[in-house]
Amino acid sequence: MPDTASEPVVLYVCTTCRAEGDGDGPRAGARLLAAIQAELEAGPAGALRVEPVECLSVCKRPCTVAVAGPGRWTYVYGDLDPGHSARTILDGIGFYAEAPDGIVPWRARPEAFRKGVVARIPPRGEGPAGR
Amino acid sequence: MPDTASEPVVLYVCTTCRAEGDGDGPRAGARLLAAIQAELEAGPAGALRVEPVECLSVCKRPCTVAVAGPGRWTYVYGDLDPGHSARTILDGIGFYAEAPDGIVPWRARPEAFRKGVVARIPPRGEGPAGR
């Protein structure tokens, strides 16, 4: 059985995602990452690890993140606003971290997650909790 | 480091995917699963486990599969033809299984995987091979 207490939930943020209007400055994905990191500095978020990723292959629906954790379904979300969704993403991941299998009841999911879901993948066989 | 020798690659097949024209019979996703299983009975496919999944949340791009393995990137593919893609999927997964990180060179990927990629997610921290 996975050690869900010590192994953190991981938030992958695509830093390559480019939004309409992106010029020579940081791309939308990099701005989203910075906004998430700023939110995390403002307050603790439990056992969460944030990892920049060069590409999540969801290029048509920027910005994009994925969230994964031991024994949990992995979710991929797109269509996220780099300027306004950092807090929403972290709130949604809070619910995810509280659900042993990562499946949050529909009503509790942020609207951005309901509309932006790109895919979900079951936990790989990691013991009974993963099935 | 994950034990990549004994832990198999897993192919998740969405059995809920419905294609245009699906009537009362088995849905497109269920037909794709049956076709994959028939291909596997016809010949061995190494350490591959096939798992039906009720929904991969890629409902707009049926049929859909995902492939995952220890220390490997997870890939999600859509737009797969239930009648003609079973052999292609298994061939593509053969290349995936041979790549330690699951990243197959672009030219070696089946066209259905190049065009149908929905998302990819990095391996979660499972040791050095997973980073």
TrEMBL record, chains A, B:
Signal peptide (residue range): none
Highest taxon listed in the record's lineage: Bacteria
Protein name as it appears in the record: Metal-binding protein
